[in-house]
Amino acid sequence: MTKADHVDVLIIGAGLSGIGAAAHLAKDLPAMSYVVLERRAVSGGTWDLFRYPGVRSDSDMHTLGYRFRPWRGNVALADGQSILDYVRETAREYGVDEHVRYGHDVVSAAWDSTTARWTVTSEVDGAGGRERRTTTADFLWVCSGYYDYAEGYTPELAGRDRFRGEIVHPQHWPEDLDHTGKRVVVIGSGATAVTLVPALAAGGASHVTMLQRSPTYVVSVPGNDSIKGRLTRMVGEERAYSVTRWKNIALQSALYRLSRARPELVRKVVRKANVAQLPPGYAVDTHFNPTYDPWDQRMCLVPDGDLFAAIKDGSASVVTDQVTGFTETGVELASGQHLDADVVVTATGLNLQVFGGTELVVDGQRVLPHETMAYRAMMLSGVPNFAFTIGYTNASWTLKADLVAEYVVRLLKRMRSTGNRRVVPVRDESVAEVPLMDFDAGYVQRLVHTLPRQGTVAPWALRQNYLYDAVKIRTAKLDDGVLDWS
Q1: What's this protein's family per the entry (predicted)?
Q2: Mean pLDDT, to the nearest integer, of 461-486?
Q3: Which of 18, 56, 131, 362 has a CA between 20 and 30 Å from the CA of residue 347?
């Protein structure tokens, strides 16, 4: 059975990016019809999917919040439920929730130049089982993020079947898991691990061990932004939000640039701060001094040093070693050490998934993302009337999501005012290509070869610099000789 209808814009994904994209359409192009197709039964994306203890933002909320809707309050690193509430409140405020169709697993999107339309095919649960439905649209906008919601990444670990305790991945945290009084080993050292360890320790575990193959940069930041609090009392919530947002953008940008220009200086500063928060004589260089430079991978932020506090009071510890496999009672390490455990959490990362697994087809030819070049890191060469949203790796995701939304709105307004029905970036074959994401994180390196490429010069180059993009993207001419309008 097939059910078809048509909209001006079709958005895939009802998470942080998709809700933001739809809100931009609602406020800036209210006459334009749109629909949001969401695979899951509820909105919120990441912030509804992840339910592990302590789940929170790894970016400050005054930049992770939307530019057009203030994050109220002074909390800098917010808990997952608060972020989910914020996303859903935004959807209600702008009427987006009325345009979301849940349970739509988008499997393919085909562009036809003769009609200048996309035909998007979804699988849904029907009375007779799984059935396919199609929706046509003039413009397709993918806001599904870049990782696989169905399965997180877990490396092959020998002896899993021997272990008598529980093994869980944070992406699929069991609601009925009780870790009270239990010995917990968290394998990993990224943002998820440094969040889980103090939360589990504070939540009643007898002891929590963070087992890492190699150290990560961990930086303590205030849990509340005191400057935002003072500004709010002086000038009100909205103005305080705007000022705090720009203040934090400037600080993030300065730290990133300094990290790239003077990595040894930043390393020393971070190390000194770690030493001050850990017990005297602690092996900082073993457990918190990475071999790579700052911002070769994303830094981990911990509110008010909660991870260091848990280590200091003895409720948590860090072990840096290689896992050789499971035993019946825990984890065996390359050094010969054995970690006793009742629960093992594999906070070992994510699996990348390009465009939510949607197969793109243009005039009967399948689009292979790695054979395309990304235009302004939001459109694809040779793919008409198409945009995608992927945030920054060195700053808050929403900073880029808002810029993409503003630019897409400009494109759509131009199409409506001129009568053009198609816009497509045309690749300059003389432009050299490089990986889209120049980032050493494991989840990126495992599948970077499947992603679109970027170029070495504008507008094909990705700068990972919000201050640069905020100017260039907002002022970019739509008649730039790269976009083909017809």
Answers
A1: Belongs to the FAD-binding monooxygenase family.
A2: 92
A3: 18
CATH 1.10.150.20 fits 164-346, yes or no: no
Other C-beta atoms lying within 10 Å of the C-beta of residue 470: 17
d(CA 410, CA 412): 5
Q: Kindly tell me the sign of the dihedral angle through the C-alpha atoms of 43, 38, 357, 420.
A: negative
Worst-scoring range by mean pLDDT, 43-52, 315-324, 437-446?
437-446
Which one of 2.40.128.630, 3.20.20.140, 3.50.50.60, 2.40.50.1000 gives the CATH number of domain 4-150+352-485? Answer: 3.50.50.60
Q: Reduce the DSSP state of residue 268 to 3 states and report it.
A: helix
DSSP states along 31-100 = TS-EEEEESSSSS-THHHH--STT-B-SS-HHHHS-TTS---SSBSS-BHHHHHHHHHHHHHHTTGGGGE
- pLDDT tens profile 43-71: 999 999 999 999 999 899 999 999 999 99
List, in order, residues 6 or more apart from 245 with CB less than 8 Å away: 62, 63, 65, 67
Q: Which residues of 275-311 are buried (b: 16+ CB within 10 A; e: fewer)?
A: eebbeeebeeeebbbbeebbbbbbbbbbbbbbbbbbb
Using alpha carbons only, give the angle 106, 134, 398 rounded to the nearest 5 degrees. Answer: 40
Token output for 247: 């203040």
Query: Same topology for domains 4-150+352-485 and 164-346, yes or no?
Result: yes
Angle between helices 80-93 and 16-28 (to 10 degrees): 20
466-475 own/partner pairs: CB under 8 Å, 24+ apart: 466/249, 466/252, 466/253, 466/392, 466/395, 466/399, 466/400, 466/403, 467/249, 467/250, 467/253, 469/400, 469/403, 470/403, 473/376, 473/403, 473/406, 473/407, 474/403, 474/406, 474/407
Q: Residue 338's beta-bridge partner residues?
A: 332
Does pTM top 0.85 for this prediction?
yes
Element housing 200 (H / E): helix 191-202
Residue 187 bridge partners (DSSP): 211, 346
- Closest to 122 measured CA to CA, from 134, 130, 112, 110: 134
pLDDT in tens, 350-390: 878 889 899 999 999 999 999 999 999 999 999 999 999 99
**What are residue 439's phi and psi, to 5 degrees?**
-145, 135
Sketch the domain layout of the chain as residue ranges.
4-150+352-485, 164-346
The predicted pLDDT at position 1 comes to 37
Residue type, 267: R
The count of other CB atoms within 10 Å of the CB of residue 136 is: 16
CA dihedral (60, 61, 65, 67) positive or negative: negative
